[in-house]
Structure to design on (590 residues):
């Protein structure tokens, strides 16, 4: 018996060691493939190579395309060589926007690269591949080609050479200074003698420079703080507005500087605004799950608003992942009979996905093996680090956030003109191990919400149970929540929807205050009984408007409000501290 027990204990120890060994090996390999599972990447390119090697006709076609493409570009380059004083046409590509790229010989360098880039993108497309593998190959081929752009090196970038000559070499000196400073800062963080790496101060201090709209924290639990903003008008709409921000970002993206604060704008329009501030988790929150974020977060906030304001109807808005949370809560409330929570007067979703079959570039990081690698990584700490999440998002848009940044900072020697949004973007947040795993598995991997398979408190959730009118806002250049994916909310719900397609990206397109230059949007309304309209057809027929979509949203909220009441101020007996609260101030260096 003793021998059997010893064998069992030995096997348990070996199994534990083997898992640690596998996790260490996978982490080492993943460091070579920007956070992506090397197995996932290998499978994708094996699929591509298998189809390529078994398709002689396809290879012949690509060879013919290469021959014709380079024949055309050679003829064009020959003409430019004969007349070197003649400028080539100005390129719309931001990498080659400087006029020096239109002049020989750099116009030849640019034309050759653009032709090569286009050819490799064609080669990455092979009929018959698994869709996810095709997505991965397309993405990584683009990353590799982007890295090879002549704009990324000094001797092949005429703008860098021109600026260097004009500045008598000072741009090179400043660029080297920036590079050494950044390398020293990174090395200092890695070799810090403290247990925790050093944390650099934010350029914009939270509560001083940003997140300054007056308010009070009126409720706190282990997961959220609930902020009640002080009204700035004597009369307010009867229905308060609850804002559910994404837990993968600090809430003050919606309350930046006074001139571009969405919160301040809403308060000035006569709305009583409540905001959820999510706690930045540590290792003790590793077992906090997705349902906790819904019950202790969204639903608890609604219950507190009803209790403290006596409001029976509440407007609601969710941004990014917060919008996904809100859609689940709204559907659950539409099916659940309870007096604890208020009735939702309206639901607004900003850049929020509910159908995850087309997750955009983020889908590159989602498959079974990638989630396995993430689980191994998170099991060591109990959370997904904010830096790891930020690096993943940077890699999704590497051309702008990595290569273009390096050219501007290191080759051209330009100082970074920081702003409030850039400061917020460097204020990273973590995600609990269990919640992050459930979120990716349920939604991205299995699309459980759109398929009606997700359950909240043992009740199946279907978005068609949402009864409140909805405004759904998406942005044209959103890499995180592509607008056509967001548009699929029309297929999942059975209520009135006002859909907005705004200019800009995931963050800048949402923070689009009135008066912001070069902003425009499209808007269209679909009634409950109206049939399906394809996204592209909607875009062709929707009304176009200049300026900020906030104005249309404020008008829509007013139309869905009942009457005006005396302004509600935060009750002194419930006040815990001033806004922005304590949770938002928690920062970690990882």
């Amino acid at each position: 018996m003793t021998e059997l027990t010893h064998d069992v204990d030995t096997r348990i120890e070996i199994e534990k060691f083997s898992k640690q060994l596998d996790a260490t090996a996978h982490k080492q390999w993943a460091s070579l493939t920007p956070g992506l599972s090397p197995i996932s990447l290998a499978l994708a390119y094996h699929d591509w190579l298998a189809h390529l090697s078994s398709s002689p006709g396809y290879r012949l076609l690509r060879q013919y395309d290469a021959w014709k493409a380079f024949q055309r570009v050679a003829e064009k380059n020959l003409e430019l060589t004969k007349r070197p004083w003649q400028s080539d046409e100005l390129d719309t590509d931001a990498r080659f926007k400087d006029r020096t790229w239109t002049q020989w010989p750099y116009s030849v360098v640019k034309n050759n690269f653009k032709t090569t880039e286009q050819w490799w993108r064609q080669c990455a497309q092979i009929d018959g591949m698994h869709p996810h593998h095709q997505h991965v190959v397309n993405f990584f081929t683009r990353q590799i080609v982007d890295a090879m752009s002549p704009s990324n090196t000094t001797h092949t970038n005429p703008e860098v050479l021109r600026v260097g000559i004009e500045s008598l070499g000072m741009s090179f000196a400043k660029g080297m200074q920036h590079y050494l400073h950044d390398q020293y800062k990174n090395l200092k963080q890695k070799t810090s003698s403290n247990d925790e790496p050093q944390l650099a101060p934010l350029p914009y201090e939270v509560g001083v420079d940003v997140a300054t709209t007056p308010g009070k924290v009126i409720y706190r639990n282990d997961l959220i703080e609930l902020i009640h903003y002080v009204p700035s008008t004597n009369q307010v709409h009867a229905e308060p507005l609850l804002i559910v921000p994404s837990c993968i970002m600090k809430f003050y993206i919606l309350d930046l500087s006074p001139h571009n604060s969405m919160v301040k704008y809403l308060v000035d329009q006569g709305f009583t605004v409540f905001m959820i501030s999510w706690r930045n988790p540590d290792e003790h929150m590793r077992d906090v799950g997705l349902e906790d974020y819904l019950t202790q977060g969204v639903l608890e906030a609604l219950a507190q608003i009803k209790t403290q304001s006596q409001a029976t109807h509440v407007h609601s808005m969710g941004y990014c992942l917060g919008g996904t949370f809100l859609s689940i809560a709204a559907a659950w409330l539409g099916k659940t009979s309870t007096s604890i929570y208020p009735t939702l007067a309206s639901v607004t979703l900003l850049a929020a996905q509910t159908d995850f079959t087309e997750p955009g570039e983020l889908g590159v990081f989602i498959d079974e093996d990638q989630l396995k690698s993430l689980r191994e990584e998170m099991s060591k700490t109990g959370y997904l680090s904010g830096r790891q999440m930020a690096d993943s998002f940077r890699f999704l848009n590497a051309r702008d956030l990595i290569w273009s940044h390096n050219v501007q900072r290191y080759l051209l020697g330009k100082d970074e003109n920081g702003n409030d949004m850039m400061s917020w973007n460097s204020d990273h947040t973590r995600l609990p191990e269990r919640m992050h795993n459930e979120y990716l598995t349920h939604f991205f991997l299995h699309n459980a919400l759109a398929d009606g398979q997700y359950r909240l408190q043992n009740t199946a959730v279907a978005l068609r149970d949402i009864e409140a009118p909805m405004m759904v806002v998406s942005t044209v250049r959103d890499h995180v929540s592509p607008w056509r994916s967001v548009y699929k909310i029309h297929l999942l719900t059975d209520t009135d929807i006002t859909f907005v397609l705004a200019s800009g990206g995931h963050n800048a397109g949402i923070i689009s205050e009135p008066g912001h230059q070069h902003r425009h949007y499209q808007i269209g309304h679909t009634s409950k009984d109206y049939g399906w309209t394809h996204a592209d057809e909607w875009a062709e027929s929707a009304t176009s408007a200049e300026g900020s979509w906030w104005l249309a949203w404020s008008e829509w909220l007013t139309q869905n409000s009942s009457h005006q009441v005396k302004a509600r101020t935060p009750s002194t007996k419930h006040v815990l501290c001033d806004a922005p609260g304590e949770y938002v101030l928690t920062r970690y260096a990882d």
About this structure: The longest helix spans residues 2-30. The domain at 215-385+428-585 is CATH 3.40.50.1820 (Rossmann fold). DSSP finds 19 helices and 17 strands in the chain.
